[in-house]
Amino acid sequence: MLTRWGNVDSAFAWMDELRRRMDLAFQEFDAELGYLPTAGWPRANLYDVGSELLVQAEVPGLSEEDLQVVVTHDALTLGGERKSDVPEGYSAHRQERSPVRFSRTFGFPCKVDPEKVSATLRDGLLTVRLSKAPDAQPRRISVKAH
Q1: What does the buried/exposed string (b/e) look like for 118-133 if buried means 16 or more CB atoms within 10 Å of the residue's CB?
Q2: Alpha-carbon gap, residue 58 to 62, rounded angstroms
Q3: Which of 109, 124, 90 is nearest to 52 (CA)?
Q4: Is 23 within the bounds of a domain?
Q5: Measured between alpha carbons, how far is 84 from 96 in angstroms, rounded to an integer?
Q6: Is the same domain home to 11 and 45?
Q7: What is the pLDDT of residue 6?
Q8: Around Cβ 104, how many Cβ atoms within 10 Å?
Q9: Which residue has the higher pLDDT, 46 or 100?
Q10: What is the dihedral of CA 105, 106, 107, 109, to 10 degrees?
Q11: Distance between CA atoms of 81 and 68, rounded to whole angstroms?
Q12: Are 66 and 113 in the same domain?
């Protein structure tokens, strides 16, 4: 009886390995066509620092001209384009960093003030600071005893 369970475990392990290899094959195929996975690029972190939200996204090799930052009350969209970087007069023998356009949207846990947003790019790290809307900022309530 134990050998049957062992066979089931190995079958599940085999199916998991097959799924992992299929995922890898599709990722490589998408990369050859110039697609980036929308759920994972650019890699980003979203922090709540009290009166504002902070978004940091990794965008190596891109300049401020290559990026678009669009903000609404409840979402941030990062978009851009990585262009071909083959020097003029040369031909590429191998090009693993293909030109690509990307767009990624992040929802916010609260409303932000679109008028109070700043974005900076330094060493491949895009930092976007978003002030929370006045009604979304934490308020301290005083307690009165009777």
Answers
A1: ebebeeeebebbbbbb
A2: 10
A3: 109
A4: yes
A5: 11
A6: no
A7: 59
A8: 19
A9: 46
A10: -170
A11: 9
A12: yes
Distance CA 126, CA 140 (A): 32
Q: How far is CA 81 from the centre of its chain?
A: 14
Q: Is residue 24 part of a domain?
A: yes
CA-CA distance, 138 to 51, in Å (whole number)?
Answer: 7
Smallest CA-to-CA distance from 35 within 80, 102, 93 is with 102
CA 14 to chain centre: 31
Q: Amino acid letter at 17? A: E
3-state secondary structure of 11: helix
Full residue range of the structural domain in which residue 115 is found: 38-85+100-134
User: 43-81 burial by CB neighbour count: b if 16+ within 10 A, else e?
Assistant: ebebeeeeebbebebebeebeeeebebebeeeebebebe
pLDDT in tens, 23-61: 777 776 655 555 555 456 788 999 999 889 999 999 988
94: in domain: no
DSSP 8-class letter at 97: S
Comparing 25 with 117, the larger pLDDT belongs to 117
